[in-house]
Amino acid sequence: MNISNFYDSKYSFSYKNKIHVLSDEVIKARENEVYFFHKELKVYGFNIKDLSSDKPDFKTRNILINIAFFIKDNYDLFKFVEEQRNLPIRKLSFEVKESPLFVDRWQGYIISYLLIISNKRYHHLRNYLNVEENTFDEDSNYELKKDNIAGLNMFNTTNNSCVILTSYGVFLTIVPHTTYNVGEIVIGKLAKNFKFLIKAFFILILIGIISYSAYYYAFKAAKNIIVLDINTNISITVNKFNKVVDVSASSIKGKKLIKNTDNINLNSNVDEVLSSLLKTALQTKVIFDYDKVSIFVNKNPLDFDSLTETNNIVLDSHIDLRVNNNGQDYYLK
């Protein structure tokens, strides 16, 4: 297959039923081939278990098997791969008209296919693969419709699962219905992909972080910081919806006052919180009638004319209220 007709003479995986010999001699021969295939694949920096974690779709597998045949039939490329034990990503990408990222992502599959189709040692593995020329009428969702997945047992894992190579060219981790030896054709259900689960877990964490950040910005981020000086300093944080999101004090007296004050609920309005704090301060003798009380507002000015309850308490108790409203002085007596 030369460069000019790379896309004219295609090979394709087939889902058509294929008769497989099940004799003990063939199974033993397959077992030996799988053993050497493992060892040779590791020389190229890959292992079968890792290949099973990333499943190329039907169209992609057909591209990959054609790339493998292209390398096999190209003396210079094949020699490079044999000597360097890797693919010439950029050169191969240019010649097969696929992106370097595509070739790099699937080089484990390309090398696996190449080893199987080019090395006579893997005669039985090659025969197991169902590859035909110019087959384009296949149902590419075939494997998704099967409850029981069949394939050649390539590797037994430690958690009662095994990695198989299907006749349509995909490495999968399955849980077999019964115990099988390496080299036998096994049937089972697709195992959970833990790498996928880990990836999904981290995606959920990322979504959670983004959601919390958006929530924090919308509801917790401070629009105003109000400091109420009533013989102890109490800090009130207000969000952009003019709702109180935090009330705190550094002194024991301030903390006790906050604890004893009713109606200090998150998402209360500023007037409710200020009036409740002043009322409790008067009731507990923290301040007295005619005392001087100071309020400092930073970031954004506060509309004190809208603080009806607070103004009423100040007027009824004759409190000398002095406000620094973001640099502007405001007095209410």
From TrEMBL:
Residues 225-326 form the Anti-sigma factor RsgI-like middle domain. It holds the Pfam family RsgI_M. The chain crosses the membrane at residues 196-218. Keywords: Membrane, Transmembrane, Transmembrane helix. This is Anti-sigma factor RsgI-like middle domain-containing protein.
